Amino acid sequence: MTRLLHTATGPHGVGPLSWVAAPLQEADRVLDLDCGSGPLADELRPGHWAGITHAGTARGRRPQVRAATNALPIRTNAVDAICLLLTLPHLADLDDVFAEIRRVLRPGGTLVTVAPSVSMRSVRDWQLARLLRPVRRGAWRNRSGLDGAGWLLAAADFAVLGDDRVPFALPIPDAETAARAVTDLTVAGIWPPGLPATVRAHLAQELGRLAGPGRVLPIPLRRLTARR
């Protein structure tokens, strides 16, 4: 995830991590759920980030705690903001997860969710539609966490304050980089993790044909900012 999020760029050269962190900058205590290695921590003020990981052992930035997203070892009303970075489409037991988020997030606190945007909204999206059809139809655990994320937040009793979609650009200057991008996008959760090996190989081959100096793969992300 870290390599991909540091490589892609959006309008005006802003990277995905800075864009994700923007609504969280004023929060004193930010909880990053299913944080992986914690790349978001580098975008926030020192000492204001903590991560929850489901991995076998906590790794990456500190502090991290190993716990399930539906059973957080945190006291009630303890945090000012929570971030779900590329996590929502992969979560089960959403009712329990949102119940825990409401419990630990203080009244008036901020919830930021970021997920892949799979709807086609630009000419470039239509041009890539055939290539990315297996990705759009992939086996997401919680498909409503994609373009239905706003509805999920409203149903969980959060007020949605902002809904932004940005097409970030991932450079694919050569076939080797294009093949690596397929792995990175899957590992990061931007593409479905269960894509069969044959599909990944086909995607790598097709992206390799599109690769070249100055060529990029659009990575549309959607950020929702909500308040408890």
What can you tell me about this protein's structure?
The chain has 228 residues and is an alpha/beta fold. It has a single domain (2-227), classed as Vaccinia Virus protein VP39 (Rossmann fold, 3-Layer(aba) Sandwich). The protein has eight helices and seven strands. The protein has helices at residues 2-7, 16-21, 94-104, 123-127, 133-136, 149-155, 175-188, 197-210, and strands spanning 30-33, 49-53, 64-66, 79-85, 105-116, 159-171, 216-227. Helix 3 links the parallel strand 4 (79-85) and strand 5. Helix 7 packs across helix 8 (197-210). The longest helix is centred in the C-terminal third of the chain and has 14 residues, at 175-188. The chain starts with a helix and ends with a strand.
Question: Short summary of the structure?
Answer:
By secondary structure, the chain is an alpha/beta fold. The protein has a single domain (2-227), classed as Rossmann fold, CATH 3.40.50.150. It is built from eight helices and seven strands.
